[in-house]
């Protein structure tokens, strides 16, 4: 009986210590495709206003994703009404066309740096809106129904 309790305590310790930097890690499904005008929204309260944090956008994609990169438009809403908008580009494949990210099957997970050493000015509710802005080369209009992105995530980590 004592051995089982001891092993359980060790297992819990190992599992909880694996990701000591993580403050928030949340995902949302986008369905069969990610609509061009559909924002994925994350609401959160920052952990602290004195420390700096790294913010990440996490994407899970499968082989249905037909592009070597991805463009995202993000809006970070602050409690005081300020909105910080960014247009971001991330590579999804290497020059050989092989998927970047982690995963052993056709599902890959990409951890994309959004903001580095970011300090929150308030501990009140913040929101992050993430939209896809992928377009084919030479096209003016974006892809209306983007296939291959299965989940979008938002992550906050402690800095070193």
Structural key phrases:
160 residues, mainly beta, Jelly Rolls, four-stranded antiparallel beta sheet, 1 helix, 10 strands, 46% strand, globular
Look at the helices and sheets and give the structural class. mainly beta
Task: Strand order, main sheet: write it out.
Answer: 1-10-4-7
Q: Give me the count of strands.
A: 10
- The CATH topology is given as Jelly Rolls
β content, as a range?
A: over 45%
- What is the oligomeric state here? single chain
- Write the element-wise H/E pattern from the N-terminal end onward: HEEEEEEEEEE
In DSSP terms (H or I, runs of 4 or more residues), the helix count works out at 1
Helix content: 10-25%
Q: Residue ranges: pLDDT <50 for 5 or more in a row?
A: none
Number of self-contained structural domains: 1
CATH architecture: Sandwich
The CA-CA distance between the termini, in Å, is 40 Å
- CATH class descriptor name: Mainly Beta
Q: What is Rg?
A: 18 Å
Principal-axes geometry comes out as: globular
- State mean pLDDT (0 to 100 scale): 90
Query: Main sheet, how many strands, which sense, barrel?
Result: 4 strands, antiparallel
């Amino acid at each position: 009986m004592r051995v089982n309790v001891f092993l359980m305590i060790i297992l819990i310790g190992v599992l909880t210590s694996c990701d000591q930097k993580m403050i928030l890690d949340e995902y949302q499904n986008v369905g069969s495709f990610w609509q061009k005008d559909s924002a994925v929204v994350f609401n959160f309260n920052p952990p602290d206003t004195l420390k700096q944090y790294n913010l990440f956008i996490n994407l899970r994609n499968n082989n249905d994703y037909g592009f070597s990169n991805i463009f995202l438009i993000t809006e970070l809403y602050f409690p005081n009404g300020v909105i910080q908008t960014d247009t971001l580009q991330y590579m999804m494949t290497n020059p050989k066309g092989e998927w970047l990210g982690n995963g052993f099957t056709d599902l890959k997970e990409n951890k994309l740096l959004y903001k580095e050493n970011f300090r929150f000015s308030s501990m009140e509710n913040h929101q992050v809106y993430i939209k896809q802005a992928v377009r084919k080369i030479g096209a003016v209009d974006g892809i209306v129904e983007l296939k291959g992105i299965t989940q979008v995530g938002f992550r906050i980590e402690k800095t070193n």
